[in-house]
Model the fold of this input.
Amino acid sequence: MLTLYTFKGMPDVKCGTLRGPMVKTISGFITALREHRICSAAGDDGAVNVYRADDGTYRCSFCRYLAYISNETFTTKAAVRKWLKEWLPKMYEFHS
Done:
C-alpha cells in the first residue's frame, strides 16, 4: 500500500493541502504525477518536490538545509524529467 504524505502551503495551490507519495526515481516521479498532484524525494543532502499548480504547470524545487537552491516552473513532463535528471542526484551529492 502506498503511503501518502500531506504537503501544506504550496505556492499557486488554492486548496492549501496536497497529498502524494515519496518516490526515489525519475520514473517514479512521472508515474506518481499521473495519479497525484505532488510527489517528493529526500536524501542526506537535500529534497526534491514536484507538484502541479492550479494552472496546470509543474512546479519543481530542490531544497538543501532549509534553503531553496532551485525553483522552476515547467509546462511539460519532458521538461520535468530533464530537470529531475540534474537535481535528483544532488540529494546524495556529498555522501556518495
